[in-house]
Amino acid sequence: MKTEWSIKSFDELTSLELYKIIQLRIEVFVVEQNCPFQDADNKDQTSWHFMGWQSDQLVAYTRIVPPGLAFSEPSIGRVVTSKLVRGTGMGRILMEKSMEELYKLYPSSSIKIGAQLYLKTFYESLGFVTCSDIYLEDGIEHIYMIKA
Prior knowledge:
Aminopeptidase, four-stranded antiparallel β-sheet, globular, alpha+beta, 32% strand, 3 helices, 8 strands, 26% helix
């Protein structure tokens, strides 16, 4: 099935798009990963929301955070795919397209992320390198990574 990609500022999101974003983030980060955390962190309002849709189903999403909000560099966070597309390479496509969009917004910039430790090899395959020790965030091991 064809995936339609779009990027919007918070103010451009429709109420249905915002609902689907929150629904997917809770489904994966809270329910699947059994990790209650404060998802509403006041970064959504000034971030960009990159979405992959198949028909009316949100199947892939990232939040592109501007420099100075989470890190001095821009960041890609809340990286999530629906169960419907896992194992199809959608995660890689999502990250590659998210990086393309980030570079359109912030040319010649490095990208810094806070990655779940188990995804270290995946992010390394996209050009990220570890730049921190392991830290716990919401009970899950993470590392900071950067792509120059």
